[in-house]
Design a protein that fits this description.
The protein has about 270 residues and is mainly beta. It contains six helices and 20 strands. About 15% of the residues lie in helices and about 40% in strands.
Amino acid sequence: MRIARFVAHGDPTYGVVELAEDQGENPETIAVVSGDPLAGAVHFTGERLALADVRLVAPVIPRSKVLGIGRNYAEHAAERGAEVPTTPLVFLKPNTSVIGPGEPIVRPPETENLHYEGELAVVIGRICRRVPIERAADVIFGYTVANDVTARDLQSSDGQWSRAKGFDSFCPLGPWISTHLELGEAADLDLVTTVNGEVRQSGNTADMVFSIPELIAHVSSFTTLLPGDVILTGTPAGIGEIVPGDSVSVTVSGIGTLTNPVVSED
């Protein structure tokens, strides 16, 4: 299934996205569900809306945290002039950095070198701690697309990454959470980032240094993961600058495309 969070009238609501490829000749729709799928059982309400008539928002607002993984693709580490870590390099992004599809990435005045980083994101589905590698699939709710927006100059000058990766709007997620992918499928997905339609990144999750089970095992060894927590699995080579007026799209095969415009805060 593809679980989306959307606004049609009133507060954000959850639904199951039904794409044309799933329905033959039928139009793309979203089947409304009651409740929050990450919090407990939900039920179809019987209402269906045209996907084009709703506004998709971030499919999850992490109740606790977004955990990023640095240099998890060897070619990306090389382009940064850095070594590949011997253990996963973990950083935190606040949940206030999360935005959804179509919402603007806001370049703050503190940076003059804003970068995109297209990534596969893992959404955690249950409370867990010290998850063995062989049990990692049991705690995954699904997968979505992410853009780990980074103020590259602040990342270099600060000596740590909290500010560079933590501004509001620096964690676009969407367009929905795909719950139907098996762990093996998630380990072989194409990832493409475009800026104004021009391909800037082209990679595959098979090239990760540390696999998804290894990342979950490592992260859960030092922090309890909660339902809705998000792990960003790293970005392939090809990072680069974005400026106000640009449009950034990240596509992960089997999931979908996340697009956000870039604007200036000033």
